[in-house]
Write a structure and sequence with these properties.
Elements: H1 2-36, H2 48-75, H3 91-123
């Protein structure tokens, strides 16, 4: 039977080699496509004043967004939901308690039988 074991190990190694080889090929393909399709942005010195103005606009937009959010929060009538009252015993608890009572009942019955058998033996 060592032939079967050797064959199974070879199949396992072949499968693992194919999987990892495919992963390496996909990794290389993704790296190649990333380098090939990368954006080549030419940044010039003349765009520096524009970026300062753009930063100012972003700061104003952020301040406006915060102001709107605070105003909406004050006007909101949303309140936290109260937790609804639940039954004293849930269906899950009822099922588990019923099972436990049934098991205890069976145990008590078997203990009574054993005790009555012992008592009879002692009387004889």
């Amino acid at each position: 039977m060592p032939n079967t074991l050797t064959l199974s190990l070879l199949i396992t190694l072949l499968g693992m080699g194919i999987v990892f080889g495919t992963i390496v090929i996909l990794w290389g393909l993704m790296a190649f496509l990333t380098k090939l399709l990368a954006d080549k942005n030419n940044v010039s010195d003349s765009s520096t004043p524009d970026s300062a103005i753009e930063g100012e606009h972003k700061a104003q937009a952020a301040a406006l967004a915060v102001a709107v959010a605070l105003a909406e929060q004050e006007l909101s009538t949303a309140r936290p939901l109260s937790i609804p009252q639940t039954a004293l015993v849930s269906a899950w608890q009822l099922g588990m308690r019923t099972r436990q009572m049934y098991q205890k009942g069976e145990r008590v019955k078997t203990e009574r039988r054993e005790l009555s058998g012992l008592i009879r033996r002692n009387k004889e």
